[in-house]
Description:
By secondary structure, the chain is α/β, with parallel strands linked by helices.
Amino acid sequence: MLIDLHNHTGWGSGDSHLDPSELIERARRWGLDGIAITEHNQVWDPEKIEALRRRHNFPVIGGAEVDTDIGHVLVFGLQGPRRWLRLPSLEELRSLVDEAGGVIIAAHPFRGLLTAASSSHPSEDEWSQLISHHRWNMVDAVEVYNGLAGSQQRGLAAELARRLDLPTTGGSDTHRFMDVATSFTIVDGELRDERDLMAAIKARRCRGGDWASEGLVDKRRKELIGATSRWAPMSSKE
Length: 238
Ligand SMILES: [Zn+2]
Ligand SMILES: [Zn+2]
């Protein structure tokens, strides 16, 4: 099953205008089998999630992307509706999530960390410092495939997961319809809700990927590039 674990919509993220129904229908059309909604610093009311699941007959999972003191993390398992007004430390979030039996995923762990040339190939010492500074040993999984991350960030995130012996995930980090279904998580088994997802991550039955990494047809790209090429002759005359 292919599920996108990182999506922002206009219903909960100030930086997204995407309608949740459009997100779901595009995800389905472009080949995904499920999506998670992870707004910035808030978990939706579970009734809204359930309503979308029923209306579209499509697996929809509620989570959140929380800004912690050491960076962004995706969380699943906390009861909504919930909004963080004061941003938590990773320790605070970890104890909340543990109480709920949930999971924490380090989101795009290397975004913003690649400014120094030396960080593209950290030494052993730099790896130890990075891991202890970010407390990456407190997460359950690492988002290796993020739709907004390039190959360098992805390579470092994969190396981080390998060093910590953690499962990997993928998500598009959708904010606009064009971002939908660029990255995803391959899950062994079927997911219907948050519980299924938490069980799959804890049992390591998942890995991050995209269409190229899995050798699958990228319907999204075909449709978007097809649309661009139909317009190309007109714009090239200008
Ligand atoms: Zn983020
Ligand atoms: Zn995000």
